[in-house]
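User: My collaborator and I are trying to settle a disagreement about how two of our proteins should look. Neither of us wants to argue from intuition anymore, so we agreed to look at predicted structures for both before our next call. Could you fold the first one, then the second, and keep them clearly separated?

Assistant: That sounds like a sensible way to settle it. I'll keep them separate. The first protein:
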Amino acid sequence: METPDQGQHGSAAQDGRPLDGVRVADLSRVLAGPYASMLLADMGADVVKVEHPERGDDTRSWGPPWAKGESAYFLSVNRGKRSLAVDVKSPEGRDAVRELCAGSDVVIQNFRPGVVERLGVDYEAIAARNPAVVYCSITGFGTGHEPAGRPGFDAIVQAESGLMRATGPPEGPASRVGVAMTDILTGLNATVSVVGALMRARATGRGEHVTASLVNSALSSLASLSQQALVTGEEPARYGNAHPSIVPYQTFRTADDDIVIAAGNDSLYRKLCDAVDRPDLATDPRFASNPDRIEYREELVGEITATLRTRTAAEWLAVLTAAGVPVGRVRGVLDAVHAANASGDDATMTVEHPTAGTLDLLRPGFQLGSAGGADDALPPPLLGQHSARVLGELGLPRDRIADLTERGVVFQNGTE
């Protein structure tokens, strides 16, 4: 479809980004859906985020911490979007959202079952007006899951999917991964499926309804662990920071801090032995091959640990890196971001936010060779920052927009 001037949409007027000219109606909230729509915006799409006119996305109130009144959580997944704050419970608000969806290339929603049908923005209703639409539904437990409509919170899905039981120390309790990983994985899966369906729609003129769920995203992410369970018919043991099938491949304590060594094959193991001045470990028949090292895991780990305790983490990092042994320091989050930037990875980008001021944001995990990219994105929007402009693009006259705003159907932030 043809979109208005990209400067009005929050995407830089650059040529060559994969999704330039694609409009996304983002009816999702919290994390999985907004993460997916943010990645689409990073690739050039014009994303219009539909929000409640009073409270907006739930994550706007998820703090502390705050950046001058803006929730850090919200800021993390909403760059590059425009905010349309409208009451979908009112007939005029529903009409506006229907027009937005019908005129968009992509619709993303994560409402509870039955809500989109009541609003008239379900796939069948939108596809009847726009057969090329790619419509993405994000759920916690899948559209066919019983009982229907089960709430899909990340912690619940981590527990139900086996991810939690696979995480944590061998003798300790099951542990939740420290971020909402199932939401992030679902956002990635939703992005991949939307881009694939868009390619088909561009080639054939026919869109489709794609779905992504937290539980299936979590299950598929277990990969080799789940395949191990299927092959053996047994629950995999929990190894904490070690690896079930490779030794040594785990955290080790040095004289002052923890490091991770990943000797993934026999050659790397021998390099490790030479680097730490333990040639005896390379020639010991108990440790000759990876299956041997797994059998005598406890003995080998004890020997390596005793040696590593004699020097600092920084010293061992220098020695092992020079020897070509995969090694890394166990860093805190802020330390990791700063270290990545210092190493030339460009982990962050800077935007100017209308209230938070100069704001550092994490880049996406990919980089495009085409012109533009995340660096050209608008900052995360204020609630209703673009309401009047988006409604104008949908054909509503100014006096009608003013009337809806006065009656509280629409909220327009005064900064635009």
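The second protein, kept apart from the first:
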Amino acid sequence: MPKHGKKYRKAIEGIDLNARYEMPQGVELALKTSVAKFDETVDVALVLGVDPKYSDQMVRGAVSLPHGLGKDVRVAVFCQGEKEAEAKAAGADFVGGEDLVAKVKEGWLDFDKAIATPDMMGKVGQIGRVLGPRGLMPNAKTGTVTFDVANAVKEQKAGKVEFRVDKAGVLHAPLGKVSFGNEKILDNLKTLMETVIRLKPSAAKGTYIKSMTLATTMGPGIKVDPSTLRKHVEA
């Protein structure tokens, strides 16, 4: 068992970490147990009743959170022609075509999100092995392969969250900063959950959301009772 400091031990006093709470209370407790000096990120982990090795049980998508994520998102757009000016006007940090692809090939990766127009995907595919493992590869399913680059840039800048269930059937997603407070984190969580529930694969049988845990960067995991979600989430 890891040893925890006085602040941590005091923060969890009177809290049953094995209990499963309703969503609003879970958010409140997760924020209450934040003990770091910096503004921690609040995350949610969902264990889903799917088997991702089957393509018809993959859960993947993106959602624009109503209150964003509270951080500056550096966006790179792979495009050409008039789309370059459109991307720059929308606030993209880095814009280019083959020159930007070449830059990535040389090892440059100083961006958080990547967007590409469909006509550039042949070139962007050349750096797929670099972008893919880092979760940076543009994808039509998440709205990052599009000719509407202005809207895509604005969504990413505002805090659009992309998510994908991993091999173990677990889905992780950020919900914002502790400084947002209970109401904004709860709003973001509700919006995320509405999207995840809506994306339930028809091939998935049995319980879809098996467990749900909220935690800040340095805080303990607060369990939420999945059976109470319907009271708080509109699917």
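Some points you might bring to the call about the second protein. Helices lie at 6-11, 23-32, 82-90, 98-105, 121-124, 128-131, 149-158, 182-198. Residues 182-198 form the longest helix (17 residues).
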